[in-house]
Amino acid sequence: MRQLAAQLGGRDSRSDDLLRHVDPDGAEYFTVKATGQSGMSHSGLARFLGVPHQRISKWVKRVQEANRAENSLPNCLKPFAGWNLVLTGYFDIEGRNILTDGFCAAMIEYYASYSKQVNKESQVKAQQTLDLIKHLGMRLFIHKKTGWKSSDRSSYPVEAVRIGFELYLPKHIPQPLPIIENVYTADKRLRKVVKQRRLKVGVQLSLFTDDLRINPQLL
Fold first, then answer.
1. Angstrom distances, CA of residue 217 to CA of 39, 197, 203, 205, 209
2. How far apart are CA 68 and CA 133, in angstroms?
3. CB 41 within 8 A of CB 169
4. pLDDT tens digits, residue range 22-71?
5. DSSP H/E element including 22
6. CB 112 within 8 A of CB 127
7. DSSP helix/strand/coil, 69
8. Which helix or strand (DSSP H or E) is residue 157 part of?
9. What gap in Å lies between CA 87 and CA 39, rounded to an integer?
10. pTM tops 0.85
11. Are 102 and 170 contacting, i.e. CB atoms less than 8 angstroms apart?
12. Secondary structure, 3-state, 167-183
């Protein structure tokens, strides 16, 4: 897994809207510059898994056409039944749709744990990558490949939560919550209170030691 995590070399390109990275084996990754949304091309995912391109296309069609309430899909693919599986409005260099990172992660899990129609080498690679994805998340895994970094560091925690929901709870609809107090404002206010209390304690201690003519350093 360490070797796979360290293997970030390959061909890179940057268009106006997308960051693109291609591994030596042909696995192809994309990240939308403006949002960080990520995914893989059909052919890139197929090469990554060592399966024919037609097999990936077959799964995409089957999952998209599956009934959301009841279907015979493998457990790892059930959450994506009937949903759009591509980055809307973005395409690879050959004009084909880019599969979302969440679905790519599910396909990797399928070939690592469920499918018997894949060679041993590809299955081991899928299992290694699945272990890595469990630590990083598929989107952060692709971010490492394409070199995407958020321009707003304060958005990292929010982005991490959003990625988690997209990967594991794709049907969840977030609801807004009232903000009682901004966390940064609260932190600043509490720090000020602590400082004031420390000063007050320091003054009281000074008065006490002065009255009794005690050296404060001995306390």
1. 63, 20, 15, 11, 10
2. 25
3. no
4. 888 888 999 998 888 999 999 899 988 888 889 999 999 999 999 988 99
5. strand 18-22
6. yes
7. coil
8. helix 156-168
9. 7
10. no
11. yes
12. HHCCCCCCCCCCCCCCH
Partners of residue 86 on adjacent β-strands: 99
Give residue for tokens 């268009």: 15
- Cβ pair 139, 38 in contact under 8 A: yes
- Token match 């990797």: residue? 108
Parallel, antiparallel or unpaired: strands 38-41 and 18-22: unpaired
How many whole angstroms separate alpha carbon 6 and alpha carbon 164?
23
Instruction: Give pLDDT tens digits for 126-158.
Output: 777 777 776 667 888 888 888 887 765 545 555
Name the percent of the chain in helix, strand, coil, to the closest 5.
55, 15, 35
pLDDT at residue number 1: 41
User: What six digits make up the tokens of 125?
Assistant: 């690679």
| Matching residue, tokens 């006490």 | 208
Tokens of 198: 């420390």
Tell me the CA end-to-end span of the chain in Å, nearest whole number: 56
